Structure formats: structure tokens, C-alpha cells
Amino acid sequence: MLNSIEALEAIYGLPHDRAVRKQIPFLNEDYQAMVRASPLVIISSVGPDGMDGSPRGDTPGFVRIVDERTLAIPDRPGNNRIDTLRNVVLDSRVSLLFIIPGIGETLRVNGTAQISAEPGLLESFAVNGKPARTVMLVTVQAAYFHCSKAIVRSDLWNPQKHLERSALPTAGAFHKRLNDGQFDAEAYDREAPVRVRDSLY
């Protein structure tokens, strides 16, 4: 097993100058354009009970650019585990990965975060009259675009490679297995479209 930076660098060498220069401590015009176009961001966090990687999604531009060093991410109704929020309260470090459908490049942002429940801020993110539950305010420390190789290798945006939902267990089936079979998977799946629609915001 490799156990030193020197051993890693002996295999990979040093990064190209372009790979170093693309990291900046703020969001420039190009990086801001990627944030505005993204309907999905993955938030990674760490806390005393472990790590968490959690998706946040909404219409493009749902992550608000307060200024070139500050982002605001609304939190909507979910399962109330609040793993990411628990972590941020105890350890402010976060990493964000912005994904844009059809685009190979992604945007990575590292920084620190705070959780706000200020009523005016929550109301400013209201959808259908329903304010955000909380808002994560991220202070940007490093931002850089990630090249398209991972997306190209995965062929992620190729519709011919998209799976039919029936290729995998349903959410109800997941719950049934996790509850030793004592769960009405059919009813859960049947009611899912309305339940999801009515609880988005």
C-alpha cells in the first residue's frame, strides 16, 4: 500500500501548470456561470460521527451567488436526518460539486459553511409560498473546474445508456428488505409520485 506523498508523486508526477492555475480563491465570471446553470450540487461534509455526501437539487440557479466569495444554498424538506447540517454545525468544512446536465465539466468549490435560520433569508428562497427550512452560507476558499474525462468515461449523458427504473429495486423494495419484509412496498411505491410532488417544498 502507498503511504506517502512521495510514493504517490513517483507514480503520478506533478500536475500540469494549467491544473494548478485553474484553482482560484473566489468565483470568477466563468465559475459563476457554472453555478447559475447547475440544477444539482453534491455537498460533502465531515463531523465527529463520520463523513457525508448529500445531493441538493432544484431549478438552475437555486444556489444563490451572494458575491464572488459567498454562496447561499437553501435546504428543503427531506428525511430529517440532516446529516450534512449536523456536520456543518460541528465542523464547518465543506466541498461542493456542481453538475450540469449535458456538460462534461463540473465545478468544485471548497470552503467553510454556516447554517442560517434568519426569517428574511429563508423567505427570500420561498417557492410556492414555502420558505427554505434553513440556508447554508458557504465561504469560498478554493474553486476550480474539473475536466470532462470522468463524464466522458462514464457516458453519463448518453440517453441510450440510461437505465429503465425497473432495472433496480424500487424505494419500497429497499424499505421492505431493510425492515425484514415487514413493510408494504407496493403501497409505498404506488403513493410515491403524489407524496414526492406534495413534499418538494
Automatic annotation (TrEMBL):
Domain Pyridoxamine 5'-phosphate oxidase N-terminal: 28-147
Database matches in InterPro entries: Pyridox_Oxase_FMN-dep (IPR024029), Pyridox_Oxase_N (IPR011576), Split_barrel_FMN-bd (IPR012349)
PANTHER family, per database record: FAD-BINDING, PUTATIVE (AFU_ORTHOLOGUE AFUA_6G07600)-RELATED
Protein name, entry field: Pyridoxamine 5'-phosphate oxidase family protein
Species annotation: Pseudomonas lini
Lineage: Bacteria, Pseudomonadati, Pseudomonadota, Gammaproteobacteria, Pseudomonadales
